Amino acid sequence: MTEVTMTVNGKSVTADVEPDTLLADFIRQNLSLTGTHVGCDTSQCGACCVLVDGDSMKSCTMLAVQADGAEITTIEGLATNGTFHPMQQAFHDNHALQCGFCTPGMLISAIDLATKNPDISESEIRHGLEGNLCRCTGYHNIVKAVKAGADAMRG
Amino acid sequence: MSFAYHKAASVNDAASQAGGDAALLAGGMTLLPAIKLGLSDPRRLVDLADLGELRGITRDGDTLTIGSMTRHADVAASAEVQGAIPALAKLAGGIGDAQVRHRGTIGGSIANNDPAADYPAACLGLGATIVTTSREIAADDFFTGLFETALEEGEIITSVRFPVPEKAAYEKFVQPASRFALVGVFAAQGPAGTRVAVTGAGLSGVYRASDMEAALESDFSADAIDGITVPEDNMAADIHAAADYRAHLVKVIAGRAIAAAAG
Questions:
Q1: Chain A contacts of B97, Cβ < 8 Å?
Q2: Taking CB atoms and an 8 Å cutoff, what residues of chain A touch B102?
Q3: Which of A26, A78, B23, B234 is the most buried (most CB within 10 A)?
Q4: How many CB atoms lie within 10 A of CB A116?
Q5: A40: nearest Cα among A24, A63, A21
Q6: What is the CATH topology of the domain spanning A2-77?
Q7: Residue B35, exposed/middle/buried by CB under 10 A (0-12, 13-18, 19+)?
Q8: Within an 8 Å CB–CB cutoff, is residue B100 touching chain A?
Protein backbone atom coordinates (compact mmCIF):
# COMPACT_ATOMS: atom_id res chain seq x y z
CA MET A 1 0.00 0.00 0.00
CA THR A 2 1.09 3.55 -0.71
CA GLU A 3 -0.24 6.62 1.04
CA VAL A 4 -1.69 9.29 -1.22
CA THR A 5 -2.99 12.73 -0.37
CA MET A 6 -4.95 14.83 -2.82
CA THR A 7 -7.52 17.59 -2.81
CA VAL A 8 -10.85 16.46 -4.25
CA ASN A 9 -13.52 19.10 -4.81
CA GLY A 10 -11.77 21.36 -2.31
CA LYS A 11 -11.37 18.77 0.44
CA SER A 12 -8.09 17.13 1.34
CA VAL A 13 -8.22 13.33 1.38
CA THR A 14 -5.53 10.90 2.48
CA ALA A 15 -5.75 7.15 1.95
CA ASP A 16 -3.65 4.03 1.58
CA VAL A 17 -4.04 2.56 -1.90
CA GLU A 18 -2.61 -0.35 -3.83
CA PRO A 19 -0.26 0.92 -6.56
CA ASP A 20 -2.53 -0.54 -9.24
CA THR A 21 -5.67 1.28 -8.04
CA LEU A 22 -7.01 3.42 -10.86
CA LEU A 23 -7.88 7.02 -10.07
CA ALA A 24 -11.44 6.33 -11.32
CA ASP A 25 -11.85 3.46 -8.88
CA PHE A 26 -10.35 5.50 -6.05
CA ILE A 27 -12.83 8.30 -6.70
CA ARG A 28 -15.82 6.00 -7.04
CA GLN A 29 -15.08 3.38 -4.40
CA ASN A 30 -12.91 5.04 -1.76
CA LEU A 31 -14.56 8.44 -1.95
CA SER A 32 -18.05 7.24 -3.01
CA LEU A 33 -18.16 9.94 -5.69
CA THR A 34 -20.00 7.87 -8.27
CA GLY A 35 -20.76 10.75 -10.62
CA THR A 36 -17.47 9.98 -12.40
CA HIS A 37 -18.52 7.21 -14.77
CA VAL A 38 -16.46 4.39 -16.19
CA GLY A 39 -17.72 3.64 -19.68
CA CYS A 40 -15.20 1.86 -21.89
CA ASP A 41 -12.37 1.50 -19.34
CA THR A 42 -9.97 1.67 -22.32
CA SER A 43 -9.33 5.45 -22.38
CA GLN A 44 -11.51 6.06 -25.40
CA CYS A 45 -14.96 7.23 -24.26
CA GLY A 46 -14.11 10.02 -21.80
CA ALA A 47 -16.98 9.38 -19.37
CA CYS A 48 -14.41 9.18 -16.55
CA CYS A 49 -12.85 12.62 -17.19
CA VAL A 50 -11.91 14.67 -14.15
CA LEU A 51 -9.88 17.85 -13.83
CA VAL A 52 -6.38 17.20 -12.49
CA ASP A 53 -4.63 20.48 -11.65
CA GLY A 54 -6.95 22.17 -14.14
CA ASP A 55 -6.47 19.78 -17.06
CA SER A 56 -9.08 17.23 -18.13
CA MET A 57 -7.76 13.70 -17.81
CA LYS A 58 -9.23 10.22 -18.12
CA SER A 59 -9.28 8.82 -14.60
CA CYS A 60 -9.52 5.23 -15.88
CA THR A 61 -6.06 5.68 -17.41
CA MET A 62 -4.35 7.14 -14.40
CA LEU A 63 -3.24 5.51 -11.19
CA ALA A 64 -4.35 6.98 -7.89
CA VAL A 65 -0.66 7.17 -6.90
CA GLN A 66 -0.03 9.42 -9.93
CA ALA A 67 -2.55 11.89 -8.51
CA ASP A 68 -0.69 12.20 -5.21
CA GLY A 69 -0.50 15.91 -4.38
CA ALA A 70 -2.91 16.89 -7.15
CA GLU A 71 -6.03 18.99 -7.06
CA ILE A 72 -8.97 17.05 -8.50
CA THR A 73 -12.39 18.30 -9.55
CA THR A 74 -15.15 15.81 -10.29
CA ILE A 75 -18.69 16.40 -11.48
CA GLU A 76 -19.78 16.62 -7.83
CA GLY A 77 -17.51 19.65 -7.39
CA LEU A 78 -19.10 21.82 -10.09
CA ALA A 79 -22.32 23.11 -8.50
CA THR A 80 -22.15 25.54 -5.60
CA ASN A 81 -24.82 25.46 -2.90
CA GLY A 82 -27.29 23.76 -5.18
CA THR A 83 -26.74 26.17 -8.07
CA PHE A 84 -25.53 24.67 -11.33
CA HIS A 85 -22.17 25.65 -12.77
CA PRO A 86 -22.86 27.81 -15.86
CA MET A 87 -21.78 24.91 -18.07
CA GLN A 88 -24.21 22.55 -16.32
CA GLN A 89 -26.97 25.12 -16.78
CA ALA A 90 -26.08 25.41 -20.48
CA PHE A 91 -26.31 21.62 -20.91
CA HIS A 92 -29.73 21.72 -19.18
CA ASP A 93 -30.97 24.64 -21.28
CA ASN A 94 -29.78 23.16 -24.58
CA HIS A 95 -30.96 19.61 -23.97
CA ALA A 96 -27.35 18.45 -24.40
CA LEU A 97 -27.98 14.99 -22.98
CA GLN A 98 -30.28 12.07 -23.40
CA CYS A 99 -29.20 9.08 -21.31
CA GLY A 100 -26.68 11.22 -19.44
CA PHE A 101 -23.96 8.60 -19.07
CA CYS A 102 -21.29 10.61 -20.90
CA THR A 103 -22.41 13.93 -19.39
CA PRO A 104 -20.05 14.10 -16.37
CA GLY A 105 -17.05 13.67 -18.66
CA MET A 106 -18.48 16.04 -21.27
CA LEU A 107 -18.96 18.76 -18.65
CA ILE A 108 -15.43 18.35 -17.29
CA SER A 109 -13.92 18.53 -20.79
CA ALA A 110 -16.17 21.44 -21.73
CA ILE A 111 -15.17 23.45 -18.67
CA ASP A 112 -11.49 22.78 -19.36
CA LEU A 113 -11.91 23.96 -22.97
CA ALA A 114 -13.91 27.07 -22.06
CA THR A 115 -11.59 28.03 -19.21
CA LYS A 116 -8.52 27.97 -21.46
CA ASN A 117 -10.24 29.39 -24.53
CA PRO A 118 -13.13 31.63 -23.39
CA ASP A 119 -14.10 32.68 -26.92
CA ILE A 120 -14.01 29.13 -28.26
CA SER A 121 -15.31 28.47 -31.78
CA GLU A 122 -17.56 25.64 -32.89
CA SER A 123 -14.73 23.83 -34.67
CA GLU A 124 -12.47 24.21 -31.62
CA ILE A 125 -15.24 22.71 -29.48
CA ARG A 126 -15.62 19.76 -31.84
CA HIS A 127 -11.84 19.18 -31.93
CA GLY A 128 -11.61 19.63 -28.16
CA LEU A 129 -14.34 17.07 -27.48
CA GLU A 130 -12.78 14.34 -29.64
CA GLY A 131 -11.97 12.36 -26.50
CA ASN A 132 -15.58 12.30 -25.28
CA LEU A 133 -18.02 9.96 -26.95
CA CYS A 134 -21.80 10.37 -26.81
CA ARG A 135 -23.96 7.65 -28.33
CA CYS A 136 -27.30 9.46 -27.97
CA THR A 137 -27.28 13.07 -29.02
CA GLY A 138 -25.34 13.31 -32.25
CA TYR A 139 -23.29 16.04 -30.53
CA HIS A 140 -25.09 19.06 -32.03
CA ASN A 141 -26.79 20.10 -28.80
CA ILE A 142 -23.62 19.39 -26.82
CA VAL A 143 -21.64 21.73 -29.07
CA LYS A 144 -24.37 24.39 -28.75
CA ALA A 145 -24.34 23.97 -24.97
CA VAL A 146 -20.56 24.27 -24.72
CA LYS A 147 -20.68 27.49 -26.72
CA ALA A 148 -23.47 28.86 -24.51
CA GLY A 149 -21.68 27.67 -21.37
CA ALA A 150 -18.44 29.31 -22.46
CA ASP A 151 -20.30 32.57 -23.10
CA ALA A 152 -21.94 32.34 -19.65
CA MET A 153 -18.61 31.58 -17.95
CA ARG A 154 -17.12 34.67 -19.59
CA GLY A 155 -19.98 36.64 -18.04
CA MET B 1 -2.09 -6.34 -13.04
CA SER B 2 -0.03 -6.06 -9.92
CA PHE B 3 3.12 -4.06 -9.52
CA ALA B 4 5.20 -2.06 -7.10
CA TYR B 5 5.41 1.68 -7.69
CA HIS B 6 8.42 3.92 -7.27
CA LYS B 7 8.45 7.65 -7.90
CA ALA B 8 11.97 8.44 -9.09
CA ALA B 9 13.67 11.20 -7.11
CA SER B 10 16.30 11.93 -9.77
CA VAL B 11 17.30 10.79 -13.25
CA ASN B 12 20.08 8.73 -11.68
CA ASP B 13 17.61 7.12 -9.30
CA ALA B 14 15.32 6.30 -12.25
CA ALA B 15 18.22 4.83 -14.24
CA SER B 16 19.30 2.69 -11.30
CA GLN B 17 15.74 1.37 -10.87
CA ALA B 18 15.07 0.80 -14.59
CA GLY B 19 15.55 -2.41 -16.50
CA GLY B 20 14.69 -6.01 -15.72
CA ASP B 21 11.07 -6.42 -14.69
CA ALA B 22 10.56 -2.66 -14.33
CA ALA B 23 8.81 -0.34 -16.78
CA LEU B 24 9.40 3.40 -16.94
CA LEU B 25 6.19 5.38 -16.52
CA ALA B 26 6.08 8.72 -18.37
CA GLY B 27 2.53 9.89 -19.18
CA GLY B 28 1.22 6.35 -19.15
CA MET B 29 -1.05 6.88 -22.15
CA THR B 30 0.18 3.68 -23.79
CA LEU B 31 1.67 1.77 -20.87
CA LEU B 32 -1.39 1.87 -18.59
CA PRO B 33 -3.88 0.69 -21.26
CA ALA B 34 -1.37 -2.03 -22.23
CA ILE B 35 -1.12 -3.19 -18.62
CA LYS B 36 -4.92 -3.13 -18.23
CA LEU B 37 -5.29 -5.25 -21.37
CA GLY B 38 -2.67 -7.72 -20.18
CA LEU B 39 -0.34 -6.86 -23.09
CA SER B 40 2.32 -5.69 -20.67
CA ASP B 41 2.95 -7.08 -17.20
CA PRO B 42 5.75 -5.21 -15.42
CA ARG B 43 6.46 -6.03 -11.77
CA ARG B 44 7.61 -2.50 -10.99
CA LEU B 45 6.74 0.93 -12.34
CA VAL B 46 9.33 3.68 -12.11
CA ASP B 47 7.47 7.00 -12.42
CA LEU B 48 9.38 9.87 -14.04
CA ALA B 49 6.67 12.46 -13.22
CA ASP B 50 8.63 14.36 -10.58
CA LEU B 51 11.73 14.89 -12.73
CA GLY B 52 11.30 18.53 -13.65
CA GLU B 53 14.69 18.56 -15.38
CA LEU B 54 13.17 16.33 -18.08
CA ARG B 55 10.50 18.93 -18.87
CA GLY B 56 10.73 22.09 -20.89
CA ILE B 57 11.34 23.63 -24.28
CA THR B 58 14.32 25.76 -25.25
CA ARG B 59 15.60 27.24 -28.49
CA ASP B 60 19.27 27.89 -29.02
CA GLY B 61 19.88 29.33 -32.48
CA ASP B 62 18.86 26.71 -35.01
CA THR B 63 18.21 23.98 -32.47
CA LEU B 64 14.98 23.37 -30.61
CA THR B 65 15.30 21.10 -27.58
CA ILE B 66 12.30 19.45 -25.95
CA GLY B 67 12.64 17.65 -22.63
CA SER B 68 11.48 14.04 -22.75
CA MET B 69 8.73 14.51 -20.14
CA THR B 70 7.22 17.50 -21.95
CA ARG B 71 3.54 16.85 -22.63
CA HIS B 72 1.97 17.04 -26.08
CA ALA B 73 -0.34 19.87 -24.92
CA ASP B 74 2.68 21.93 -23.84
CA VAL B 75 4.47 21.40 -27.16
CA ALA B 76 1.29 22.31 -29.07
CA ALA B 77 0.79 25.51 -27.05
CA SER B 78 4.46 26.57 -26.96
CA ALA B 79 5.21 29.91 -28.64
CA GLU B 80 8.81 28.70 -28.99
CA VAL B 81 7.77 25.62 -30.97
CA GLN B 82 5.15 27.53 -32.98
CA GLY B 83 7.83 30.03 -33.95
CA ALA B 84 10.64 27.57 -34.73
CA ILE B 85 8.81 24.54 -36.16
CA PRO B 86 5.07 25.21 -36.52
CA ALA B 87 4.63 21.76 -38.11
CA LEU B 88 5.80 20.18 -34.86
CA ALA B 89 3.34 22.22 -32.77
CA LYS B 90 0.56 21.19 -35.14
CA LEU B 91 1.59 17.54 -34.93
CA ALA B 92 1.58 17.61 -31.13
CA GLY B 93 -1.85 19.28 -31.11
CA GLY B 94 -3.26 16.46 -33.23
CA ILE B 95 -2.09 13.52 -31.13
CA GLY B 96 -4.91 11.45 -29.64
CA ASP B 97 -7.40 13.67 -27.84
CA ALA B 98 -7.19 16.52 -25.35
CA GLN B 99 -6.86 14.13 -22.41
CA VAL B 100 -4.04 12.18 -24.04
CA ARG B 101 -2.26 15.45 -24.81
CA HIS B 102 -2.57 16.47 -21.14
CA ARG B 103 -0.56 13.44 -20.02
CA GLY B 104 1.32 11.92 -22.96
CA THR B 105 4.96 12.90 -23.42
CA ILE B 106 7.37 13.09 -26.36
CA GLY B 107 9.85 10.76 -24.66
CA GLY B 108 7.20 8.19 -23.90
CA SER B 109 5.91 8.29 -27.45
CA ILE B 110 9.23 7.75 -29.16
CA ALA B 111 10.47 5.17 -26.63
CA ASN B 112 7.32 3.17 -27.35
CA ASN B 113 7.69 3.62 -31.14
CA ASP B 114 4.15 2.63 -31.99
CA PRO B 115 4.07 2.11 -35.78
CA ALA B 116 1.16 4.58 -36.02
CA ALA B 117 2.46 7.24 -33.61
CA ASP B 118 3.03 10.80 -34.85
CA TYR B 119 6.26 11.85 -33.10
CA PRO B 120 8.52 9.23 -34.73
CA ALA B 121 7.67 10.81 -38.10
CA ALA B 122 8.71 14.24 -36.83
CA CYS B 123 11.98 12.91 -35.40
CA LEU B 124 12.87 11.12 -38.60
CA GLY B 125 11.50 13.86 -40.88
CA LEU B 126 13.51 16.58 -39.15
CA GLY B 127 16.63 14.53 -38.53
CA ALA B 128 16.35 14.91 -34.75
CA THR B 129 18.86 13.73 -32.19
CA ILE B 130 17.59 11.67 -29.26
CA VAL B 131 19.57 12.45 -26.12
CA THR B 132 19.65 9.76 -23.43
CA THR B 133 21.26 9.22 -20.05
CA SER B 134 24.26 7.66 -21.79
CA ARG B 135 24.58 8.99 -25.35
CA GLU B 136 23.11 10.82 -28.34
CA ILE B 137 21.34 8.80 -31.02
CA ALA B 138 20.44 10.07 -34.50
CA ALA B 139 16.76 9.51 -35.29
CA ASP B 140 17.92 7.55 -38.37
CA ASP B 141 19.45 4.97 -36.01
CA PHE B 142 16.84 5.15 -33.25
CA PHE B 143 13.67 3.58 -34.67
CA THR B 144 14.61 -0.03 -35.34
CA GLY B 145 11.27 -1.79 -35.86
CA LEU B 146 7.72 -2.20 -34.57
CA PHE B 147 7.77 -1.01 -30.95
CA GLU B 148 11.57 -1.39 -31.12
CA THR B 149 14.22 1.28 -30.61
CA ALA B 150 17.98 1.48 -30.15
CA LEU B 151 17.50 2.13 -26.41
CA GLU B 152 19.41 -0.26 -24.16
CA GLU B 153 17.93 -1.63 -20.98
CA GLY B 154 17.89 1.07 -18.31
CA GLU B 155 18.70 3.86 -20.80
CA ILE B 156 16.37 6.84 -20.42
CA ILE B 157 15.60 9.53 -22.98
CA THR B 158 16.28 12.95 -21.49
CA SER B 159 15.52 15.23 -24.45
CA VAL B 160 15.04 15.46 -28.19
CA ARG B 161 16.96 18.03 -30.26
CA PHE B 162 15.39 19.22 -33.50
CA PRO B 163 17.33 21.24 -36.09
CA VAL B 164 15.06 24.11 -37.18
CA PRO B 165 14.09 23.46 -40.83
CA GLU B 166 13.49 25.93 -43.64
CA LYS B 167 10.31 24.13 -44.68
CA ALA B 168 8.28 21.51 -42.87
CA ALA B 169 4.77 20.15 -42.68
CA TYR B 170 2.97 17.15 -41.23
CA GLU B 171 -0.23 15.75 -42.65
CA LYS B 172 -2.08 12.70 -41.47
CA PHE B 173 -5.11 10.65 -42.33
CA VAL B 174 -6.51 9.69 -38.95
CA GLN B 175 -8.01 6.41 -37.92
CA PRO B 176 -11.22 8.02 -36.66
CA ALA B 177 -11.68 5.97 -33.46
CA SER B 178 -8.13 6.00 -32.09
CA ARG B 179 -6.88 9.15 -33.87
CA PHE B 180 -3.62 7.38 -34.54
CA ALA B 181 -2.24 7.95 -38.03
CA LEU B 182 -3.61 5.52 -40.58
CA VAL B 183 -0.94 7.24 -42.66
CA GLY B 184 1.05 10.27 -41.58
CA VAL B 185 3.81 12.02 -43.53
CA PHE B 186 6.33 14.56 -42.25
CA ALA B 187 8.07 16.38 -45.10
CA ALA B 188 10.91 18.83 -44.49
CA GLN B 189 13.88 20.57 -45.99
CA GLY B 190 16.61 22.06 -43.82
CA PRO B 191 19.94 21.40 -42.11
CA ALA B 192 19.25 17.66 -42.07
CA GLY B 193 18.57 17.61 -45.80
CA THR B 194 15.39 16.83 -47.68
CA ARG B 195 13.33 14.31 -45.76
CA VAL B 196 10.02 12.52 -46.11
CA ALA B 197 9.12 10.33 -43.12
CA VAL B 198 6.10 8.05 -43.19
CA THR B 199 4.29 6.68 -40.13
CA GLY B 200 1.26 4.42 -39.81
CA ALA B 201 1.89 2.57 -43.04
CA GLY B 202 5.17 0.63 -43.05
CA LEU B 203 5.34 -3.02 -41.97
CA SER B 204 8.44 -2.18 -39.91
CA GLY B 205 7.11 1.10 -38.56
CA VAL B 206 8.22 4.63 -39.41
CA TYR B 207 10.46 4.93 -42.49
CA ARG B 208 11.97 7.46 -44.89
CA ALA B 209 10.60 7.48 -48.43
CA SER B 210 13.99 7.77 -50.11
CA ASP B 211 12.62 7.82 -53.67
CA MET B 212 10.45 10.81 -52.81
CA GLU B 213 13.36 12.54 -51.07
CA ALA B 214 15.52 12.10 -54.18
CA ALA B 215 12.78 13.55 -56.39
CA LEU B 216 12.38 16.55 -54.08
CA GLU B 217 16.09 17.42 -53.98
CA SER B 218 15.92 19.48 -57.15
CA ASP B 219 12.24 20.42 -57.06
CA PHE B 220 10.50 20.61 -53.65
CA SER B 221 6.92 20.46 -54.89
CA ALA B 222 4.04 17.99 -54.80
CA ASP B 223 4.37 17.59 -58.59
CA ALA B 224 7.87 16.18 -58.16
CA ILE B 225 6.53 12.91 -56.71
CA ASP B 226 3.90 12.44 -59.46
CA GLY B 227 5.82 9.65 -61.16
CA ILE B 228 6.55 7.71 -57.99
CA THR B 229 4.72 4.48 -57.24
CA VAL B 230 4.48 3.35 -53.63
CA PRO B 231 4.77 -0.45 -53.62
CA GLU B 232 2.32 -2.29 -51.40
CA ASP B 233 4.70 -5.10 -50.36
CA ASN B 234 6.05 -3.17 -47.39
CA MET B 235 2.70 -1.79 -46.28
CA ALA B 236 0.87 -2.87 -43.14
CA ALA B 237 -2.58 -4.40 -43.57
CA ASP B 238 -5.18 -4.67 -40.82
CA ILE B 239 -8.86 -4.25 -40.01
CA HIS B 240 -8.58 -0.51 -40.68
CA ALA B 241 -6.93 -0.53 -44.10
CA ALA B 242 -5.55 -2.96 -46.67
CA ALA B 243 -1.98 -2.68 -47.97
CA ASP B 244 -2.95 -1.24 -51.37
CA TYR B 245 -5.10 1.41 -49.68
CA ARG B 246 -2.24 2.42 -47.39
CA ALA B 247 0.17 2.55 -50.35
CA HIS B 248 -2.24 4.85 -52.17
CA LEU B 249 -2.68 7.03 -49.08
CA VAL B 250 1.09 7.39 -48.58
CA LYS B 251 1.37 9.17 -51.92
CA VAL B 252 -1.74 11.30 -51.40
CA ILE B 253 -0.75 12.38 -47.88
CA ALA B 254 2.89 12.91 -48.91
CA GLY B 255 1.66 15.19 -51.69
CA ARG B 256 -0.35 17.23 -49.20
CA ALA B 257 2.54 17.44 -46.73
CA ILE B 258 5.00 18.51 -49.43
CA ALA B 259 2.57 21.12 -50.78
CA ALA B 260 1.98 22.48 -47.27
CA ALA B 261 5.73 22.58 -46.54
CA ALA B 262 6.50 24.27 -49.87
CA GLY B 263 3.98 26.95 -48.84
A1: 46, 130-132
A2: 52, 55-57
A3: A26
A4: 15
A5: A24
A6: Ubiquitin-like (UB roll) (3.10.20)
A7: buried
A8: yes
Give the Cα separation of A126 and A131 in Å (integer): 10
Q: Which residues contact A33 (CB under 8 A, 6 or more apart)?
A: A8, A9, A27, A74, A76
CB-based contact B99 A128, cutoff 8 Å: no
Question: Which helix (H) or strand (E) covers residue B60, if one does?
Answer: strand B57-60
**What ipTM is given for this predicted complex?**
0.97
Domain B4-262, CATH among 3.40.50.2000, 3.40.50.620, 3.40.50.20, 3.30.465.10: 3.30.465.10
Q: Cite the DSSP H helix spans in B5-85.
A: 11-17, 31-36, 72-77, 79-84
Local confidence pLDDT in tens for the 263 residues of chain B:
689 999 999 999 999 999 899 999 999 999 999 999 999 999 999 999 999 999 999 999 999 999 999 999 999 999 999 999 999 999 999 999 999 999 999 999 999 999 999 999 999 999 999 999 999 999 999 999 999 999 999 999 999 999 999 999 999 999 888 889 999 999 999 999 999 999 999 999 999 999 999 999 999 999 999 999 999 999 999 999 999 999 999 999 999 999 999 98
